[in-house]
Specification:
This protein is of the alpha+beta class and about 325 residues long. About 25% of the residues lie in helices and about 30% in strands. It has 2 domains: about 230 residues, Aminopeptidase (3-Layer(aba) Sandwich); about 80 residues, Peptidase M42, domain 2 (Elongation Factor Tu (Ef-tu), domain 3, Beta Barrel). The strands form 3 sheets. The chain has an 8-stranded mixed beta sheet, sandwiched between helices. Strands 5-4-9-6-7-8 form a 6-stranded antiparallel beta sheet. The protein has a 3-stranded antiparallel beta sheet with strand order 10-11-17.
C-alpha cells in the first residue's frame, strides 16, 4: 500500500483536475472489476457484478488547492481557494501548476500582525515573473495549483500532502483487490469535487441508486497537544463514524461495521466529528434515501501540505471494507 499511496498523493489533482488520477486508478483495479466508466462529471465508477442489493463504496479523488483570479502588472498571482484552504496554513507554502510551474504563497503586507488573522485575499503567489506578460507565458486566469508536500514514511507513519483523501482511494483500491466473495452488486466510486461541496457524490449516487453505501475518508484526531477533544487517535485502527456535520450514520451500517470488526478482530475506534463532512452526507440524501455509513482514517494536520496517517489504520480500514462486502449487506435478513 505504501507505494500506491505515494503514487496517488504525489499526483497533483486539485478539485476540477481529477482526471489526472483516472489512468492510475484504472490500471490498479481493471483486473478486479467487470466494468469501469467515467461519468459526465468525471467520477470514476467501477462495477463488480453481483446479485441482490446495490452497494456503493466511495472515496474522493480531489485535493484542496488554489485558482488564479488575477495577474498583477508586476507578475504576481492573486488567487482564490479550491476547498478549505486556511490562509495561515497556506502562507509561505509552495504550490505547483499542471505545467510544473512552482510558486510561493506570500503576504501583501510583510509587517502584518498574523495574530490578528489574515484573509486569502491578503495573499498572492510569486512564480518569479518580472511582469504580467512574463507571468502570462506560464500561467493563465483560471489555472489551478496544488500545494507541494513531499511523501515521507517513518515506520508506520506517513507524511504527505493530499492524504485527504488519497488515503481513502488507496484503501478502496486495496479492498477491491482483496475481495474473494461477492454477495451484492458492487459499485466502487472515486468521486470528484468533494472539497467543493460533495458534488461528485451527489451525481454518482443518483446514477448508481444504491441501497447501501459507505464512504471512506479522513477524520481529525484528538491525540495531539491541541485543544481538540476527540476520541480518535493515530494507530487506533479504522474509525467507525457515528456523526459529522453532514450526516448521522445509519444504525444498520454502524452496527454492521461494529460487528464485523469484533468478529474478525479488526482494530477499530469510534468517531464523532463535530465539524466537517464527507461524501456520505450527499449519498444518504440521494433518491429516496440511502442507508449510509463511513469508514474514517485518523489523520493529523488535515488540509495542510503535511498531513499524517498511520499505515496500520489504512490496513484496518481496507480489511473492514473487505469483510463487510464478503459478509454482505442485507438489512433485516
Amino acid at each position: 500500500m505504501l507505494e500506491l499511496l505515494k503514487k496517488l498523493t504525489q499526483t497533483n489533482a486539485p478539485s476540477g483536475s481529477e482526471e489526472r488520477l483516472h489512468n492510475i486508478i484504472t490500471e490498479e483495479i481493471k483486473d478486479y472489476v467487470d466494468e469501469i466508466t467515467i461519468d459526465p462529471l468525471g467520477n470514476l465508477i467501477a462495477h463488480k457484478k453481483g446479485n441482490g442489493a446495490k452497494v456503493m463504496f466511495a472515496a474522493h479523488m480531489d485535493e484542496i488547492g488554489l485558482i488564479v483570479t488575477y495577474i498583477t502588472d508586476k507578475g504576481f498571482l492573486k488567487v482564490s481557494n479550491l476547498g478549505g484552504v486556511s490562509p495561515t496554513t497556506a502562507l509561505h507554502q509552495r504550490v505547483i501548476f499542471s505545467n510544473r510551474t512552482v510558486g510561493v504563497v506570500a503576504l501583501d503586507d510583510t509587517n502584518a500582525d498574523l495574530s490578528k488573522g489574515i484573509r486569502l485575499s491578503d495573499l498572492y503567489v510569486d512564480i518569479g515573473a518580472g511582469s504580467k506578460e512574463e507571468a502570462e507565458k506560464l500561467v493563465s486566469i483560471g489555472d489551478s495549483a496544488a500545494f507541494c508536500g513531499d511523501f515521507y514514511a517513518n515506520g508506520n507513519t506517513v507524511i504527505s500532502k493530499a492524504l485527504d483523501d488519497r488515503s481513502g482511494c488507496a484503501v478502496l483500491i486495496s479492498a477491491i483487490k482483496q475481495i474473494k466473495t461477492v454477495k451484492n452488486d458492487l459499485y466502487f466510486v472515486f468521486t470528484i469535487s468533494e472539497e467543493l461541496g460533495l458534488r461528485g457524490a451527489k451525481t454518482s449516487a443518483y446514477s448508481v441508486a444504491p441501497d447501501y453505501a459507505v464512504a471512506i475518508d479522513v477524520t481529525r484526531t484528538g491525540d495531539t497537544p491541541s485543544k481538540l477533544s476527540m476520541a480518535v487517535k493515530l494507530g487506533g485502527g479504522a474509525a467507525i463514524k457515528i456523526k459529522d456535520s453532514s450526516f448521522l450514520a445509519h444504525p444498520y451500517i454502524k452496527q454492521l461495521m461494529k460487528e464485523t470488526c469484533e468478529e474478525f478482530s479488526i482494530n477499530h475506534q469510534f468517531e464523532v466529528l463535530e465539524a466537517g463532512g464527507t461524501d456520505s452526507g450527499a449519498i444518504h440524501l440521494s433518491g429516496g434515501g440511502v442507508a449510509t455509513g463511513c469508514i474514517s482514517i485518523p489523520t493529523r494536520y488535515i488540509h495542510s501540505p503535511s498531513e499524517q496517517v498511520d499505515l496500520r489504520d489504512l490496513e484496518s480500514a481496507a480489511e473492514l471494507a473487505v469483510k463487510m462486502i464478503e459478509k454482505g449487506f442485507n438489512q433485516g435478513a
